[in-house]
Amino acid sequence: MYIVQIASECAPVIKAGGLGDVVYGLSRELEERGHCVELILPMYDCMRYDHIWGLHDAYLDLGVPWYGGEIKCDVFCGWVHGRLCFFIQSKSQDQFFNRGHVYGSHDDPMRFAFFSKAAMEFLLKSNKRPDIIHCHDWQTGLVPVMLYEMYQYYGMERQRVCYTIHNFRHQGSCGKEILAATGLNRPEYYFDYARLQDNFNPFALNLMKGGIVYANYVNTVSPHHAWEARFTDVGYGLGHTLAIHQDKFSGILNGVDYNFWNPATDKLIPANYDIDNLKDKAKNKQALRQRLLLQESDRPLIAYIGRLDEQKGVHLVHHSIYYALEHNAQYVLLGSGTSPEVNNKFLHEKYFLNDNPDVHLEIGFDEELAHLIYAGADMIVVPSNFEPCGLTQLISLKYGTVPIVRGVGGLLSTVFDRDYDPDHAPEKRNGYVFYQMDNAALESAMKRAIGLYYDYPKEFEQLVQQGMEYDYSWQAAGSQYLNVYEYIRYK
Ligand code: ADP
Q1: pTM for this predicted structure
Q2: Which domains does the chain have, with CATH numbers?
């Protein structure tokens, strides 16, 4: 099959979160199964160009219709760790992708509407006719809309779209100018509840809703989150739309790319180890302590890695630091705030705790340090408010770092409480789960984990091994996506 992925991120060259990991990992899995996969991405100025091999021009002066005129783009091509990627660089005065960041501009909907339009135009003009176009999140929600409403009439009538939603919170809400810019026009047609009109703001268009309505298949990234999105408030207003389109909606659990995330082969950690050689994990703990100037001790090391955002339960992340310090544990945090307020709060905390030899807060994004923390920590906390899938707990399991998670979304589907889980035998359990959003719930889980570490070290090691035995690779998800592709291809 010939599959083209259109996305705003692809790890490690552009990564703001799990979306980048998923786009890369799924592409590799599909290619290893013999399918032809290509990726189309924006050419940001802030990409990790050191992860692109053989970058060269693929299509110069691509004219992209825009507001009745056109914007010229150059398309470059290169390999990101073996994946063939096309990068779209616009020559517009708007400098759509030269902003020094991936997201966060006031005109983000316009930037990514342009990217979606340019990607479709590139497929059309370079005569690429994939069997499947796979697009992701609100940034590319317009792709199926434009395919169905425009490009099928230009010769792309056989292409089918799979649309994956990684986070319902950000939906790409925008005004009618998007229609004029992309050439869709006809506001009276698109401002319709059955099409792109936002379910709660009648004056706004919703790009994610467009993706759901027009794609041939829609999924989110874990079965439990698919249920939550339909029946609870984490669908952020799209539950009714999902209900209408329930026949083409499901949840497919993300995998982890074990070529990148594997303690036995990871080149970014000082000591490789595996399930039969766990004592070398301790060397990483020592290296982590040395790097972050933590004192040597026999205390467990607890970590948090992730965006510092309301979604991630920041108030519980904050509480977990102090609870760990008060209960004879060390703590390492690696995260970047998605708002200046949260960033400042944690920076303030960092200065406050500066002289404490048992804690280090690293505010920012650091892929290399993340590997060392996964390898060096004993436990990781993931107290998310909601979590469509979550990759940090999956990576932690592979690195023998016990996850302490809130039982929501993908966390509930992948972590099973050591002390109580009616669906899993004791030898199949792999972490700690709590359910409420308050401090007491988090404390009860952390207390049990720290208690086991101190009082029953053999049992703790057993729990570590049970976690490492889980296979959350892309294999299962790869098969499920291929089933979806086959299903929509002949529909
Ligand atoms: P998200 O909601 O951000 O997509 P996920 O758990 O799905 O959360 O994926 C997060 C990914 O980003 C993981 O690979 C994690 O290691 C990585 N990550 C998050 N924050 C940071 C950071 N500050 N530095 C390095 N890696 C990070």
Answers
A1: 0.94
A2: 2-255+475-489 (3.40.50.2000), 278-472 (3.40.50.2000)
Can you tell me which atom of ligand 1 is nearest the CA of 11? Answer: 14
Distance (Å) from CA 177 to ligand 1 centroid:
33
User: CB burial class (10 A; 0-12, 13-18, 19+) of residue 386?
Assistant: buried
Ligand 1 pocket (Cβ < 6 Å) reads 17-19, 21, 305-307, 334-336, 365-367, 370, 389-392
Sign (positive or negative) of CA dihedral 366, 370, 371, 377:
positive
Q: Give residue-wise pLDDT tens across range 76-115.
A: 999 999 999 999 999 999 999 999 999 999 999 999 999 9
For 363-422, how does the pLDDT look when each residue is reduced to its tens digit (9 = 90+)?
A: 999 999 999 999 999 999 999 999 999 999 999 999 999 999 999 999 999 999 999 999
Name which residue sits closest to atom 22 of ligand 1, judged by CA. Answer: 365
**159 Cα: distance to centroid of ligand 1 (angstroms):** 32
- Going by pLDDT thresholds of 50, 70 and 90, the confidence category of residue 352 is very high
Residue nearest to atom 27 of ligand 1 (CA): 306
Of all protein residues, whose CA lies closest to atom 26 belonging to ligand 1? Answer: 367
Using the predicted structure, report yes or no on whether residue 491 has a pLDDT greater than 80: no
Q: How much distance in Å is there from the Cα of 267 to the middle of ligand 1?
A: 19
| Distance from C-alpha of 491 to C-alpha of 487, rounded to nearest angstrom | 7
